[in-house]
Amino acid sequence: MTLPSIIKVHVPETHNDFLERCLKLPPLFTCTIASTETALIPGVSAAGASPELIPYTAAADVEALVYGQALCLGKIPENPVGPPSPVIITMAALRELNAPFFVVDAGNAITPKVPMFTAGRKPGRAITAPEAVADVEELFLQGVIIGQQLASNNHTLILGESVPGGTTTAMAVMEALGIAALGKISGSMPGNNQNLKQELVCRAMREKELERGSALNNPLTAVRLLGDPMQAVQAGIAMSASRKIPVLLAGGTQMIAVAALIGALLNQPTALQAITLRGSKELINDALEAQLKNIAIATTAWVSEDDSADLRSLMQQLPQALPLYSAGLDFSTSRHKNLQLYEEGYVKEGVGAGALALSTMLYHNLDNLKFLPMIEKVYEEIYLD
Q1: How far apart are CA 374 and CA 141, in angstroms?
Q2: How many CB atoms lie within 10 A of CB 3?
Q3: Which of 229, 115, 209, 214 is closest to 166 using CA atoms?
Q4: Which residues of the chain, if any, have pLDDT below 50?
Q5: What residue segments make up the domains of the chain, in order of their start?
Q6: Cα distance from N-terminal residue to C-terminal residue, the chain
Q7: How far, in Å, CA of 45 to CA of 228, rounded?
Q8: pLDDT at 49
Q9: Taking Cα atoms as reference points, which of 276, 315, 230, 246 lies closest to residue 8?
């Protein structure tokens, strides 16, 4: 199988036919949004032109998918230095694929003006708060329900996210689940501000008397104490839907954290079986029937090949082996300076951009040179018209 501009970053032998199986079903995209107070800590996130606009980022991203513009902001988010939100890549891919998409609210501070599934209504607090995510078991079960519904559409499910500050919560959750993630995560700025994020995670774990692997006996505790609402919802969706269809976790660091949560839950089924919320028994049984052969991760080459991160190490430490692919996007030849800034380490990923770019290349046999003009067209319509 020829894979133009698609990088096989980490593919265990047991998953070597995953992309071929994806091609048997048309793609369907779902973007899960959430916000946390972690993103408001100075230096954690560059997902917005200013700190005041960060809470609007996720809502603006999904409004752009529906309307071609951000109703809550008046414009689509951009990095303070100038590069635009990766939603422009997502928009170009969805146009080319003519793929349906849905939005899932896991707990966003700003409610977007779009139709969506609502899994949760409470934004996350900071990872330094006593409890970062409230009602984490309910969020997971709502994800399982949504996964059941999405699987009935008989598509390849692409699960993206828009969660500013999410690489920091991802690092924290992975550490609590036994993965050495300090200094290995990617992010939305050059160098990924590793020292600040590492100090923040270590402080939060120390204050909560947690060590690496402390949450392995009850994996959802990692999300409750250190994570963000998207992680619990996304794990529930992926586990439930994978029983019937291929699921592509769309992102880099943040989706590796979701994969770590999925693997840890499957390794510790009694933790889920102990949930006593009304109607939970059958939902938990569905989640525990997850088919790992139907789950993979896809991101951009800006993330997978990031010299300031180490995604290969993170993948090798997952409690259950999964593949990681990346789309070989390259904006160095773009006619727009703000797109060229992606090559300097800005933005890199988000809103499912990597997995949707990969899907466009896979389903339509495109390479980067053919796909780049489609992305530039979207950029020009939004920022230059």
Answers
A1: 38
A2: 15
A3: 229
A4: 49
A5: 6-384
A6: 40
A7: 14
A8: 46
A9: 315
